[in-house]
């Protein structure tokens, strides 16, 4: 422990050693650099006296601090801090053991323990926090205090001293730890990968690159503090390891430059010089044990010399067209940039906390680029790369490698030769396709013979150009093969074509692929029917002809198979496919040649009826389609009966497009499906408005939160005995700028069908919680709760628990004041997921209410399986006037009371009903009898009247 003596002195009698001006600290300051404001006193002995910074009363005090450790050499540091806020501040003082910035080029500071202990002018010596990379001390500053701190230094150098907010310092350390882990992992992978390449390939440059990679890994392990986690090392040992890592890095860089540029092939003296250089650097490993600073300084000088020599060699060898030197240019440029940045850093011209980890990341980037560079040489080679064959041989090798057949037509003798023989590929006897070109014509496809003959005639007539022709030829098995000839004419001395030489290849697979792609692009690959795009194209063509007369009036039908998904789920997808094929055949039998049937999607068909224009006959046709689909299908000894929802629309508007007409038919089909299916629904213009209004409402709802159109109304929940307010249920309201107030019954279902229900739910939670806290700030302590409805989408969301916890942390609301309501139907959607989520929420202290109890499933098992503490009786059960109403209500209320659950009765219509429910044991009620939903201002005014805020002395 430090011995601390305080004595109060006046300003005139103070000793000449004064503390620095105090650094003012605010509550929002997360990190302050105290290096510039800290005064260093060297060689002051074991006892050090200093005058403190003036406090709030303007008085300086003189303190004497005595050394607490034998390692102290008489060096002290003094700084002062002033807490300008009105609250107590917790901070940590951090002095890193090693900083690359301003560590100097020669005799660098390689790190050590900086501060042994810190003594404040008030209180006890600061507590040291465990850290392997820095000296960290915890301090506590009282409001308005000015404290002078005296640090007992282990060395006269104090590169940096920071004042951190504890959480910010922890976050910074974690961020750097993550970055260091990533860089360290990449460096390790690169070292292992290059080592494996060396084992596999064995060229000289690979072990040099691997050695450099391992040296970089060693340097990063030391610089990032990972070595201290592997083995136990002291601060002095770390200086030796750091110097050794820099020496290893400098040595491996020299070895890599020598081996990659293959310098021994140019002159033996370069090999001797490199050997002497590396040997000298090797001796530095021994020097590092006795004086790490000298070894590190020489290694840093070696980096600069290596970079300079590398520039000279790369320029010289590059001008001599040595490919290795040219390929090394990007890597060496990056090394130069890295060394220049390192020089700026160690000389103090570049000084920040990011440069040191970035310096290590730059090393990994250099090794990565070196790995790419050496791999180009490791897996390239062979005589062909060296240019040891002629252009004719190169062309011959290229032709052989491509697998093409040479097609040679001797025009003067009218003889065709193919090498290798094309006859064998076609299943013919050898040499069948050799001879006059006219012998090819009988085997060509009849549609290609005239074009083949004309193409050759044009080539001979023009005596220039290129031959690029595709045709079909019959093989011995009767199948046709697509062949492609690419050739050019060779002219004789008289200017006539004497030869035509090129290649002939079999492109049958390519042609078949194109045909399949075209087929797939136009037809459905299951039923063979046209797809949606072809359907729309044909419909547009029909519409283009329709205005020409009254004889053409197309009708579009959209046919959707009812409960087709149930067939797939029950019998399997293959059975569903077979059923679709069977239905396709039935529908095709009803059509005439001018009509079109297409498959628009999975179980939806489209039909263009052109053969009938009379409305009654169109209706009869639609009924025939419906009946054809309803005919039973026998599959796997089962009889399957299907129905269809059919929407139809006839062309009447000349401005109507194909897409618009199909959309109208689909709207009618959807209307038929909503009506229960198995019906034909003609299109009516009113169908468009329904979908449009719903889409517009969804669009407006997306912007409602941003425009602050949503608000919360609160309906009182009262105690039936006395009528006091026990809480409120939060109900969402939407004030639409054009449509006025929109009730939740309209926009909540739209939000549930889209992705809007989750943000709306969180809005309700946050707004209700914020209003509750705002009421409490303007009144006395409120004995009330707020009940908020929960949607099924929120309940099934895995992030609900985290969102609720974040909301509680943000608003600082007591969770016991909140109650979440959900219905039985929500729980039934996924009971296991609901049980897990509700269990977590219950652990936070939030109450859970089962809404609409008495309707729906009303399973009593929920009351034991799920952590509900409140049940809300549905208004239909409360308002029931049957004889058994009282028996049922009394049973439910008694059961809930025995299970220690609260009961809230909704929809109470009269005072007599309230009194009857109170006698049964129901304590709480909610209805318009006790109050309608009101805004937050009205609630606040109501609460201020009932719970006035009492000023405390």
List the topology elements:
Elements lengths: L3 E5 L14 E3 L5 E3 L5 E3 L5 E5 L9 E6 L9 E8 L5 E8 L18 E6 L6 E3 L4 E8 L4 E8 L8 E3 L1 H36 L3 H19 L3 H4 L4 H26 L7 H23 L1 H28 L3 H5 L1 H18 L8 H24 L12 H12 L2 E6 L4 E5 L2 H4 L23 H14 L4 E8 L5 E12 L5 E10 L1 H15 L9 H14 L9 E7 L2 H8 L1 H18 L5 E4 L4 E6 L5 H16 L2 E3 L2 E3 L3 E7 L7 H17 L4 E4 L3 H19 L5 E10 L5 E12 L3 E3 L1 H10 L3 H22 L6 E5 L2 H4 L4 H12 L6 E6 H6 L1 H13 L3 E7 L8 H4 L4 E4 L1 H4 L6 H14 L3 E5 L4 H10 L3 E3 L9 H11 L7
Parallel strand pairs: 2-7, 24-25, 27-29, 29-30, 30-31, 31-32, 32-33, 33-34
Antiparallel strand pairs: 1-6, 3-13, 4-7, 5-6, 7-12, 8-11, 8-13, 9-12, 10-11, 14-15, 14-18, 16-17, 17-18, 19-21, 19-24, 20-21, 22-23, 26-27, 26-34, 27-28
Helix pairs in contact: 1-2, 1-9, 2-4, 2-9, 4-5, 4-6, 5-6, 6-8, 8-9, 15-16, 16-17, 21-23, 21-30, 23-25
3D structure, described in words:
The chain is α+β, with helices and mostly antiparallel strands and 953 residues long. The protein is built from 30 helices and 34 strands. The protein has an eight-stranded mixed beta barrel, surrounded by four helices. Strand 14 (405-410) and strand 15 (415-419) form a beta hairpin. Helix 4 (235-260) runs parallel beside helix 6 (292-319) and helix 21 runs parallel beside helix 23. The two termini are 44 Å apart. The model is unreliable at 1-16 and 381-390 (pLDDT under 50).
